[in-house]
Structure formats: structure tokens, C-alpha cells
Write the C-alpha cells for this entry.
Amino acid sequence: MKLLLKYSIISLIIICTACTPDIKDYGKSDKFNIDSSATKIPFATPEVIRLHESNLKREYKIGPGDRINIQVWNRSKLSGEHTVGPFGVITLPMLGEFKIGGMNRSYSANLISKDFGKYYNDPVVTVKILKYLNNKVYVLGRVSNPGVIHFSGGGTLLEALSMAGGLPTRDKTIFLSKCYIVRGNNQIIWINLLQLLQKANIKLNIRLANNDIIYIPASMDAAVFVMGDVKNPGSYQIQTSGLSVLDAINLAGGPTEDANVNEIRLVRDMKEKDGVRVINLENMTAKGDFSKNYRLKDNDIIFIPKRGAAKFNYFLRQIDPFLRTFITGLLINDAVK
């Protein structure tokens, strides 16, 4: 009879993961409500993005690696091409070292004209940029070709992602869901790539600044641990559509025959008394009570104890030593709700 009940529970898990309401409705207004503002990624709105773009400099600043052409009208010996050195310096006839880095074309031309004016009457100077190498961003993380991306003009996030080769093809479970941009020393901008790439919300296609760092984590970087008496204990990815308790147990193959499905623990915060929930799986499968089918967060731990192991201390003896370091004395004493 117990064996029959066990298989019924496993079957119902599979059925219920497909037929239950959206899991965003589950949970109370506490740390187990994933939709609380404290747990959301602070994605930039189109209004915030426009604010960041308003601070971008409109004119290109000459910098290291740029190839430039300086023409002095009717003075061929003073004219020529130059590659800007690592410290923004070029060498000009008669003037010697000239620091052009950080200047725009018109300003640098005026300054060179003024310096040549010490030797010639009213020299006319023009500066052209032949090759842009200082206008760059760094694309890192889950893309095919991470590294430096150079722009000849003002680049955008979509252009940078395209030039970085998109997603790696070796693992189809990896997909772009979010990224952040580090700008300068005090700005981090989170972009919702699902909205930008899949919903075509072009308002999120932020214009990039020189030396921006774009980092793209994969959704597989967020995972939960399903441990204890399940068929396939281990780490499971949180996909963009979200993962519930039932989803995770289903991915782990369901409980074993010896599992105590009435005393499942969901551990979220190791330091807080209300950081643990006790979940009765039979209430979900037999009574349709999905009030504790919580939406899971990164690093959540679901532990299904063995039947007859009443104390939470059993958890400590079974889990991986790395995770064990996070369990506090508060939980050792079985202080759960």
C-alpha cells in the first residue's frame, strides 16, 4: 500500500507541475515571496537608460591605438599619418611629442595650429581619424567570443552582443536573460535581455560608453539544490520561466520509497529562523494545497528526509560539506516553522 502511495505521489508531481496555477501567486509576503522588491534584479527602465545616455559625450575622443591623419595646408613636410601611442602621445615635426589623447578632432587641430603658429604664419590644420581603436567595450561572460569590441562610432548593446558572437553553441540550455554594464567607477546598469531580445523592446538597447564592461551571466548560473531521499540529488538550473518546489523535485526524479514527503525542508536563509519552511508534499498532491509551492531562488536547498528521521540534524549528516558550512546552530536545533 505504501509503495502504491509513493508511486502515486511521483505521478502526481509530474501532473501538478503542468496543471497548477502560476507560481508567482504562491507564498506569503515574506522572504519566500520571490516577487518582493528585495529579491528582484534592479533592471533599468527605458527612462533610466535615457538618463544614463544623456551623460554620454557626443564627440569622439582620440585615444591610444587610433590611426589619425594630420594635414597642414601647403606644408607637406608637416603633414602625415600617426598612430596614437599607449599614453595618448604622437610625435610631430618641429613640435616633438604632442599629447593628443582625450581631445576631439577640432580641439586638437586648433591646438596644433596654435603651436605651429610659433614658426609659420596662420597654419591651417585638419585632423582626420582613419581608424578607431580607442572606442571600445569589453564583453565578458556567456558569449561565444568574449573580449574587446571596437566601434567606429557610437555602439549599442545589441551591436556589442552581435559582434561577440551571441550564445555558445556547445550547450543549448544556455540562453541570455540578463546582463549588467559597469560604467566608470560607480555605475552598474542591469539590462533585462529577455525584454530586449525576445520581446524586441528596443528602448532597452542602451548606447555604450567608451570602456564599458558588459557581463552576461547565463540563466544556468542560478541554481537550486535538491538533496536527501530523491532519485537524482544534485544542482538544478533555474530557467527564465521560474522554478517551483514541485518543478525541482520532478527534475530530481521524485522522492524515493523511503522518503518522508510530509517533512520536506526548503532552506533559503541560513541565518534567520523564518529562513526554512516545512512542506507537506501529500497536501499538494492529494489535497491540491499549493500554498507552499514556492518559486525558488538562486542557492535554495530542498531537502527530503528519510522516513523515520524526525530531526533536522539528519540533514547535516547528509548534505555536501560545502553546503554544511552554511547551516547555523539555529537550524541544528530544529528551529523551523
Summary: Residues 67-131 form a domain with the wza like fold fold (CATH 3.30.1950.10). The longest strand covers residues 125-131. The radius of gyration is 30 Å.
